[in-house]
Amino acid sequence: MMYLAVKLFCFSIVLNVVCGRYATSTDAEPQQTFRITPNDIEAVQGDEVVLRCEIEHLAGRVQWTKDGFALGFGNEIVGYPRFSLNQNHSDGVYNLRITNTSCDDAALYQCQVGPAKHNHPIRAQAKLTVVATPKALHGKYGRT
Q1: What ranges do the domains of the chain cover?
Q2: Which of 14, 60, 63, 109 is the most buried (most CB within 10 A)?
Q3: Mean pLDDT of 23-32
Q4: What are phi and psi of 3, to 5 degrees?
């Protein structure tokens, strides 16, 4: 009976170490978290918007997605000339800037921070709604 208890205890230690349940020196390291998460925004067509995303204790790589489509890691976003990533890695700032918004920009955006050693991935999202001005509607649907 004692042998079985010792064997189960040893198995429990091995299982907990493998599953990461025992504290290690890295547990004291701060985890990446959001300092500022993006907020839902309603913009008028033609406005400039900034979706804010700031990370404390940044460890992973940061990118934005638009309706699930990854926009990449660089300041310039290929295929989206009006989009840019205003980033300051040392401060953990990764704001997505959209100039001259159009109705096509209305979407669900997500700031994604990838996993890194001892850090889980984190994500925060915001909805951008773009409303057309009466002038834009008149030009699109009005009589000429």
Answers
A1: 33-142
A2: 109
A3: 66
A4: -60, -45
Residues 6+ apart with CB under 8 A from 23: none
CA 122, distance to chain mean position in Å, is 7
As given in the structure block, the two tokens for residue 47 are 């406005």
Return d(Cα 11, Cα 64) in angstroms, integer. Answer: 43
Under CATH, domain 33-142 is a member of which superfamily? Answer: Immunoglobulins (2.60.40.10)
Who contacts 96 (Cβ-Cβ below 8 Å, separation ≥6)? 38, 50, 51, 53, 64, 71, 83, 84, 85, 86, 109, 111
pLDDT, tens digit, 9 for 90 and up, residues 54-102: 999 999 999 999 999 999 998 889 999 999 999 999 999 999 999 999 9
Q: Is 56 helix (H, G, I), strand (E, B) or coil?
A: strand
